[in-house]
Amino acid sequence: MTQPASTRRLAVITGASSGIGEAFARAYAKQGVDLCLVARRLDRLEALALELAQQHGIEAFAVQADLSKPDATDRIVTALAEQARSCDILINNAGYSLPQTFLATKAQQQTDFVAVLVTSVVSLTHALLPGMVQRGYGRIINVASMVAFSSGAAGHTLYPAAKSFVVKMTQSLAAEVADKGVLVTAICPGQTESDFAKANGTDQLVAKSNLYKQTAEDVVAIAMSANEAGREVVVPGWPNKLAVAFMKILPDSWTAALIRPQAKKFALPDPTA
Ligand SMILES: NC(=O)c1ccc[n+]([C@@H]2O[C@H](COP(=O)([O-])OP(=O)(O)OC[C@H]3O[C@@H](n4cnc5c(N)ncnc54)[C@H](OP(=O)(O)O)[C@@H]3O)[C@@H](O)[C@H]2O)c1
User: Fold this and answer.
1) 68, 82, 244, 263: which sits with the fewest CB atoms below 10 Å from its CB?
2) Which residues, including other chains, have CB under 8 Å from residue 49's CB and lie 6 or more apart?
3) What's the confidence (pLDDT) of residue 210?
4) How much is the CA Rg of the chain, to the nearest whole Å?
5) Of 229, 224, 230, 113, whose CA–CA distance to 170 is shortest?
6) Active-site option among 28, 96, 159, 212
7) Could you tell me if 185 and 141 are in contact, meaning their C-beta atoms sit under 8 angstroms apart?
């Protein structure tokens, strides 16, 4: 006998194997939302899916996909079709950074970076948005960064550009689909507790900093309520809001003078320098 299809909403969450993505998975599971968890580390996704399904009585499944590869969106769309599910909530969260300077990296590293942080966000959103519009319900949260508003610094070269793309994409999309029942939000966190610094090898540098830091759970709670309220761009936490307000008001040359010496503390030394 075939199982009746779940009538619960389903969230597709990229980068759900740790940090902010995992916190999104936990928060939606708690609300009784089914989950499609995406990342490369299948063991972590499957363990999380099992734990949350047992704990909250939801359905959760894992999709192993490397979002730097051109077939990633197809893998996710195929997995949804195999489960006979559609996506109601999309969390474009997967991301990382390259802490070296541009010339200290290989071109492939930079193009892979753009594929994960930019191209896959475009491609996955383009694949899943039509169904949301057709059903008259959709929620999209794009995880950007407060760095989207910065003037750029040495190291992490394309990170501000990628996150600013995500912010602008969010605003345009929101303008296009708000009257179709689809709410689109960019959350722009500052430093957040996660595996981000460990993944890019700067955890020792970040550990020494005394910058304001939030938990992934706090960032996610703010993102979810802002999205539900129809807000387009949200900076979580007052110290981050203040910093972004300054970045928007001050001329770029002033922001650069303030930010660049600080940013050096989070970049890896350039072996070509
Ligand atoms: N932590 C911060 O301070 C901070 C601040 C602002 C914005 N953000 C943004 O928050 C988002 C989540 O990062 P996080 O802080 O939670 O870091 P994290 O703990 O390192 O999580 C990153 C997630 O992205 C996934 N990912 C990385 N490369 C991938 C690829 N090629 N294909 C598929 N999945 C990939 C990782 O999964 P696998 O390794 O298993 O593939 C992991 O689940 C990112 O977009 C980041 O830019 C973070």
Assistant:
1) 82
2) 35, 37, 60, 61, 62
3) 78
4) 19
5) 230
6) 159
7) yes
Residues 125, 182 contacting (CB under 8 angstroms): no
Separation of first and last alpha carbons in the chain: 66
- Tokens coding 24: 């999104």
Longest CA pairwise span in the chain (Å): 67
Any residues with Cβ below 6 Å from ligand 1, and which? Answer: 15-21, 39-41, 65-68, 93-96, 116, 143, 145, 189, 191-192, 194-196, 199
> Does 212 participate in catalysis according to the annotation?
no
Query: Which of 139, 233, 223 has its CA nearest to residue 181?
Result: 139
How many CB atoms neighbour CB 4 within 10 A? 6
Q: Are 168 and 224 in contact (CB under 8 A)?
A: no
Cβ 155 vs Cβ 267: under 8 Å: yes
Determine the atom of ligand 1 nearest the C-alpha atom of 192: 3
Atom of ligand 1 nearest to the CA of 159: 47
DSSP state letters, 185-217: EEE--SSBSSSHHHHTT-HHHHHH-----B-HH
**Which domains does the chain show, CATH number per domain?**
10-266 (3.40.50.720)
Query: φ, ψ for residue 174 (rounded to 5)?
Result: -60, -40
How confident is the model at residue 211, as a pLDDT? 84
Tokens of 182: 């689809």
